[in-house]
Amino acid sequence: MNKLLVSPSPHIHSKTSTRSLMLDVVIALLPSVLVTVLFYGWSAVAILASSVVFCVLLEYLITRYLLKKPSTIGDMSAVVTGIILALNLPPTAPWWVAMIGAIVAIGVTKMTFGGLGQNVFNPAITGRVFLLISFPAIMTTWGGAKGFIGGADAVSGATPLGIVKEGLMQGQTLQQIFDLHDFSYAQMLFVNIGGSAGEISAIAIIIGFIYLLARKVIRPYITLSILVTVAVFSGIFWLIDPSQYTDPLFNLLTGGVLLGSVFMATDYVTSPMSDKGGIIFGVGIGIITMLIRYFGSYPEGMSFAILIMNSTVPLINKFCKQKKFGRA
Amino acid sequence: MKKTFSIGGVHPDDKKISAGCAIETLPTPKTVYISMAQHLGGPAKAIVAAGDKVKTGQVIGEPTGFISAYVHSSVTGTVKSVGLRKDLAGIPVVHVEIEAEPDEWAEGIDTSDTLVKEIPQDPKFIVDRIKSNGVVGLGGATFPTNVKLCPPPDKKADILILNGAECEPYLTSDYRIMIEKPQQIIIGAALMKRVLGVSHVVVGIEENKPEAIARMKEAIASLAAGSSDYEGIEVVTLKKKYPQGGEKQLIDAITHRQVKSMGLPIDVGAVVQNVATSLAVYDAVQKNRPLIDNTVTVTGECFPKQSNLLVRVGTPLSYIIDYLGGVPETAAKAISGGPMMGKAIANLDAATLKGTSSVLFLTEEQTRRKPETNCIRCGKCAEACPMGLEPFLLNKLARNGMMDELEQNAVQDCIECGCCLYSCPANIPLLDTIRIAKGEVIRIIRSRTAPKK
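YS: structure for the whole thing
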């Protein structure tokens, strides 16, 4: 009878844990992983495996031997970072690119700030941007990968966004570029070869998004505000001059907008706490992405946009509080 | 659209496994220990001494201030002692120990089952009966009911809300009385309606209790058919969401009025009473029967015999548990109240109080807290907080002792419902730190507003 526990209320817990949330994110990423592996074959398997292994191993080594603390890999967050980093790389990238990405993502961005929950920037995106700047050739070359289905090996060269940027810089109109390259929206929606591993199927990402919403892992505001902003921003410019500015659907379906808005901008640690803050955050990402796409020198701006907005999160959190009960 | 409160809330599993058990009268124990601190406010002063003979329903404790209440003997017998005895938390409190004999009720108490439907005309008569029969709020806070029914003259209520939400998992005592004694509850509501002079009474019941909703509606219809005193009483079905039974949340759900920070329900014209209190009001006014027993749910998956028992005030918890077969092997924690806001029982020999609504047993697997890990800034605590606070922030401020910031971020508004800790995926003991900080901040606010000496 003396063995009864005594502790303050509440006496029960929802059973949701960091691990269960991360596991849900992994499950939500599976459709994208599956499509990537199917269309990019063994090279996609290799890059996914090396990215995940390096991320987890690095976190384990740092916590155990550098910080001399219990390992935190059980929370699965390093697995999530590993998968997202891999989905941000061209499938033909060599394994050591994934390793360097993992060092920047886990070693520099996450663990130096104190591990999960303490980092300012999204680890996977920081890793990707580091690689993009350091190894531009590797990071923008696609193709050469042989898929299990489809003829991916025949495809090489730039992404639709890259082609458009290139064409516009050479003075072509969009009409000419589109005629030349035969872009199809249906293709973009289902399987769009040419792009980072995770960018090939919009549908796969949307399935993941629906899963995350259904499991209440994320709320829809950040993702939707990014997509709406991209659509509205590009819609305005497209209406002004359709020969120079790509249309909203093209902007939503190409590049990293979907992958980024569903899986990277919604990262708990580096996004605002409140729904209102999330909307500001999302609008910011959308605008910066489109500014880079239309006026910058890079064809794609999603990663930069997320990183820039990551840095504003503490400020957004400070000013965007949810309404308190019984207070005006 | 079913009504509910506007901010936050969580959906713990219902676990109303004792819902089907009809209320059974627990045999009176050989000895009862009646606490003098059964209510919010000043403890009652014992007016009996060892050797005195007392009857069931006789006053043994008198109020010691404006906010205090009478305490009555729950048995007939001989006072053995008046002295300190440990309560369920292990804190010594003055108890009157009475050795029980067969019941002999004090004079003037109607112990028959006849339903008395006529509502007395004089509000003062009603309030006096409520006061003299020791009725206190049975929804948790045990605030003296007569005080709550007499707001200061500059404040006027326009609605009486009966709380039948019973939003905590496991608890079924309110559910059972709504099914078994709906007419008495409604008559109690009509009595309080007369005192407050309001024209509108709403009984809020969550949607997971359809039978209670039906029985209460029937009771209202049959009573209203016989007298105009029962006009304006209605049942409102609420969505199932915890903490719907929180006073401020219930008022928000039903009237869409939000009680201001540090304010009282009467500030928005509302008075909230639990359905069990309403039943006690019926007994007190119509039967002149003091509050000497109440319904206690004894439950938990690991407990072999789910029960709803009518228990005399002052019955040792161990007596109830032994009656039902003893503490189960696998039980790791015994709780008085629900799993979200109830208190862990440190002393099973403690006696029941007027406000004891349940004894709940949880296994180690159900209740063991997991080690705290890093905050992942998911915001689930803020999403869950029914007061719109930011528990993650309050926790951080509390750990750094930042009192001004804690006050600015409204730690004093916390209702200690536990939604934040319940939802936290990193198992951070948010409410533990916030509860302590809240106490300190309220003390600071009070010392500032108190007149300078």
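YS: worth flagging: Residues 157 and 269 of chain B are 4 Å apart (CA to CA).
IM: good catch. Also The mean pLDDT of chain B is 94.
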